[in-house]
Structures are given as structure tokens and as C-alpha cells.
Amino acid sequence: MTPIDTLISYSPATGEEVGRYPDSSAEVVHELVARARAGSLAWRALGFKGRKVILKKWAALMASRIDELAQIVMDETGKPKSDATLEVTLAIGHLAWAANNAPRFLRTSNRAPGLIMANMSAKVQYVPFGVIGVIGPWNYPVYTPMGSIAYSLAAGNSVVFKPSEFTPGVGFWLGETFNEVARDANVFFVVTGGPATGVALTQSAIDKVAFTGSTRTAKKVAASCAERMIPVVLECGGSDAAIIDVDADISAATDAVLWGAMSNSGQTCIGTERVYVMDKVADKFIAEIKRGAEKIKPGKEYGAITMPSQLKVIDSHIRDAASKGAEFVVGSVDSVQAPYVNPTIMVNVPEDSLAVVEETFGPTLVINRVSDVDEAIRLSNGVKYGLAASVWSKKNADYITSQLQCGMVSVNSVIAYAGIATLPFGGVKESGYGRIHGREGLREFTYLRSVAKKRFSIPLATMSFTRKASTDALIKKLAELRNR
Ligand code: NAD
Predict the structure, then answer these.
(1) Superfamily for the 240-420 domain
(2) Which residues contact 299 (CB under 8 A, 6 or more apart)?
(3) For the chain, what are the domain ranges?
(4) What is the pLDDT of residues 9-20, one digit of tens each?
(5) Does 23 contact ligand 1 (Cβ within 6 A)?
């Protein structure tokens, strides 16, 4: 028998071991995918109502054990308790929403058959793919993958989930609790392991991949899926901007932008990394955000950096900006104090700095002054990412929003779209494609099947070798009349 390799999970805050899980081999992945395929038939046959009962039971079980899951999230990511708890509750919200709304948004719809095909009925069906492979990150290890897991299951698919190697315990817990509400259903499996387990999942007999993680890995996942023509949803990184207009409520903006930039130690895909503030209000904005940031203490308002290698990335972005002339309003070149990073705010940061063009993923913020909203829009759009943005304006809010190349915008707020289950979540450009959450998120895990059904015969036989010259003439005449 092949020995089972072990994946050890460590606390980023203390460096202590917090759990041991299997480092799943390709063999295990393939076996579980086969079991998930077998289970998917009965799951599909349960219908929306039957699946809803089980998914709601799972949501209720999770809700009754929020503290237990939040503790694992805290242990593995280093988050403070309140953030871990909030994350778990948001994930449960999505699970319940997907279960409740799948019947409504995945209902077969009737379409108009058109004049020449008037004897046919036309329908569009939303068909579950079969088995979805979900690959998750560590920064929101419950909320993020649940956006794919819950929606896939509610749509009638079975799921094989590979959590991040930094948060295997969270994934394991999700698998165990699902099993408690649907023992031996063979519809939700968790395969813990590192990148090789993820590779094996993309190469297995799954029907679609829902990936959340870095852009670098997303490109590899998409390439692997292309080998078998498997569709893929890619939820990747960002370098999100906040635009502060002259008529913005500066106090509200500084409070929200500071939280958007620093909460979860800045390890948020939709976290604010850049601010473009109108010259006229820049001094006030910078003074207020400095006051707020000086009150934030690493280890209290936010935790340790989860992935030790990220400390180097954050450090290199800070030093690169400083070497190019950026000035520190809060923090310094020595902001990285492993395993924590002190709040760091830099102004006058050249637009070609790493902190601007790349995702820093730390509690850092770039603030640059602009002379008008068009300059702010141009600079916001000037990076390779296009995940989300935040707009602070009264008069120009709609105009600014309409010009931004990104998948989500929060106006006079930050990250608000993520708390609204009905809104689709996802980006453009190198932030990925496809959508989770909302009705679009349910439909993402189905393919469309168009069905045309003959209701009665008419003399106009168009799809036959017996088609008459009079039919051709009639069709031609109709086309001419209708397109005058
Ligand atoms: P990552 O790309 O390093 O890893 C993500 C997952 O992919 C992990 O489970 C990993 O084991 C797996 N993996 C690694 N190599 C693989 C391969 N070749 N084939 C298949 N799977 C592979 O990302 P991360 O560091 O875990 O997460 C942080 C990133 O995720 C950030 O860039 C963040 O912005 C992004 N993110 C995006 C969203 C979103 O919804 N857009 C949400 C959360 C996080």
C-alpha cells in the first residue's frame, strides 16, 4: 500500500502546528472524482426541493457551530475572532441564498419560436455540468470557496473541493459537516493537499473548474483545463483603486478606505490598494486617514500575514516604492516585522511602482493626488487587473462608475457588493472571468440546453428536401417585408 503523505497546517501567528491532513495523491483525486460522478446522478434526481432540504440542513448545522469553524479559520489564517466569525456568517448566508433561489433562477424558460417556426415550442434548460472541481485560496477560506461550492451544489452538481494548503483544516471541516447532513451521498468531497493535488484535480474527469487564487496560478489552471476543453471560472487578484472626488464625505471615506485597505492584514482580493484623491481635498483626506491608521495595531485589528512568503512580496513593494521617491505618511521601509506588517501609507508613489501595478496583499495603501476625475479614472484603469473599485462622490458617482474597467464597484462605501448575495462577483482583465454569487453564479454552474419541440405540422416544410419553390418564395418575401 502507498503510504499517505501528510500535510501539516501551522498557525501563522505562533508557528505552531495546528493540524495534520492527508496530502492527497492524484490517485485519490481521481477516485473521489469518480465517486462524485456516481453520486451526481442521485443528487440531480433529488431536484431543487430535495437538494434545498439538505443544503439548508448544512447551513443550519454550520450556523449552530459558527464558533468551532471560526476557531479553525483563526488558527490557520491568523485572523482576529470577529473577522473569522463574520466570514463564516457571510458564507452561511450564501449557502442559504443559493439553496433558496436555485429553483427560481434555474427554471426552464420559454422562448418565442418566431413566425416561420410558429408550430414549435422553444425552451432553454439550465443543466448541471456533473462534477465541479473547486480550488480555493487561504485568505477567506470559507467565504470564497463557498461562493462556488454552494452554487454548484444548488444547481445540481457534485463537487470535489481542494482547499489551500494553508487552510486544509477549514476544508476538512466543511467536508465532515456536509457528511453529517448527507452521509454517503457522494456529492461533496474535500481533497486536502498542495499545488500537485490542485493540478491532479484540473487533470481529472471533472466537467468544470471554479478557481480562486492568484493570477499566476489561474493561468496554469486555465491552460490545464484547455487540454480537455473544460470551462473554468477564474477569480483572481486585483489592485483595486478608490477614487475620492471633491464633494466626497471625507470622514466616511477615510474610515471605509482604511478598513478596505488594512482589514484582514490587507489580504483581501477586493481590498483597496490605491487611492486617487482630488488635489482640492487631498490634504484633508491624507491627514484624516493618517489619524485613523495610527490607531490600528497589528495583532489586534488585524492578524499575522498568513503565508510567510508573502512577507517578502510586501517588503519588496514598500522598498521599491521608497526607492522611486514615495513618501511615508504612516509606516516606513521597515514596516514588515514578521509575522506582522505595520500599517503603511505612502503618498506620491510613482505609477510604475510595484505597489501600484502589482497586488501587494498587505496592510499598505498608496495615495496619489489627481487634478480631475478623468485622470483618476485613467490611472485606476491603468493596471493589468480589473477586479473592483470604490467611488466616493456625490455629483460624479455614476459617471466615474460607468468608466471603470472592473467587475464590481462600491459607491460611497467599500466592498459592499460582496455582502449582497444577489450581486454577481468577479472581475475582468487579469482578475479573471466568469461570476460567482447571485443568479449569474447559479447559472455559471450549468450549461444551456436549447430544446425546440414540434407541436403540430404546418404546410411550410423548411427543413426537408421536399421543400417547395413556393415555400422558398414565401420565406424570401417575409424576409424582405420584415427588414425594409
Ligand atoms: P494561489 O494561486 O497560490 O493558490 C490558490 C490555490 O491553487 C491553492 O489551493 C493552491 O494549492 C492551488 N494551486 C497552486 N498551483 C496550482 C496548479 N498549478 N494547478 C491547480 N491548483 C494549483 O493563491 P493563494 O495565495 O492561495 O490566494 C491568494 C490569491 O487569491 C490572491 O491573489 C487573491 O487576490 C486571490 N483571491 C481572489 C479572490 C476573488 O474572488 N477574485 C478571492 C480570494 C482570493
Answers:
(1) Aldehyde Dehydrogenase; Chain A, domain 2 (3.40.309.10)
(2) 13, 340
(3) 6-235, 240-420
(4) 999 999 999 999
(5) no
Superfamily of chain region 6-235: Aldehyde Dehydrogenase; Chain A, domain 1 (3.40.605.10)
pLDDT at residue 1 greater than cutoff 70: no
For residue 255, which of 281, 293, 300 has the smallest C-alpha distance? Answer: 293
Residue 4's pLDDT band, with cuts at 50, 70 and 90, is: confident
- Whole-angstrom distance, CA of residue 277 vs CA of residue 250: 10
User: How remote is the CA of residue 352 from the centroid of ligand 1, in Å?
Assistant: 25
pLDDT at 302: 96
Closest CA to 232 of 153, 134, 155, 162: 134
Calculate the CA 220 to chain-centre distance. Answer: 17
The DSSP secondary structure of 208-264, one letter per residue, reads EEEEES-HHHHHHHHHHHHHTT--EEEE----EEEEE-TTS-HHHHHHHHHHHHHGG
What pLDDT is attached to residue 132? Answer: 98
Which residue(s) pair with 446 in the sheet?
A: 128
Domain 6-235 shares a fold with domain 240-420: no
Cell 408550430 belongs to residue: 119
Residue 14 identity (one-letter amino acid): T
Q: Among candidates 272, 281, 187, 195, which has minimal Cα distance to 238?
A: 272
Q: Is 278 exposed, middle or buried (0-12, 13-18, 19+ CB in 10 A)?
A: buried
Q: Which three cell numbers stand for residue 238?
A: 486585483
Q: Whose CA is nearest to atom 41 of ligand 1?
A: 235
d(CA 298, CA 303): 6
Q: How far apart are the first and last CA of the chain?
A: 75
Question: Is the torsion defined by CA of 186, 187, 191, 192 positive or negative?
Answer: negative
pLDDT, mean over the chain: 97
Q: Which atom of ligand 1 is nearest to the CA of 436?
A: 40
Note the Cα 227 to chain centre separation in Å. Answer: 24
- Among 157, 213, 214, 151, smallest CA distance to 186 is for 157
Cβ(147) – ligand 1 distance below 6 Å: no
Cell numbers given for 414: 467599500
How far apart are alpha carbons 153 and 316 in whole angstroms? 41
Average pLDDT over residues 364-377: 98
Question: In the structure grid, which three cell numbers stand for residue 348, read together?
Answer: 506620491
Q: In what order do the strands lie in the sheet with 446-454?
A: 109-111, 120-128, 446-454
Q: Of 427, 83, 408, which Cα lies nearest the Cα of 265?
A: 83
Paired with 165 in beta bridges are none
Best of 139, 191, 208, 360 to mutate for ligand 1, by most ligand atoms within 8 A of CB?
139
Between the CA of 482 and the centroid of ligand 1 the distance, in Å, is 52
Indicate the length of the chain as a whole number.
484
Q: For residues 162 and 192, is the Cβ–Cβ distance under 8 A?
A: yes
198 phi/psi in degrees, rounded to 5: -65, -45
- List the grid coordinates of 144: 470564497
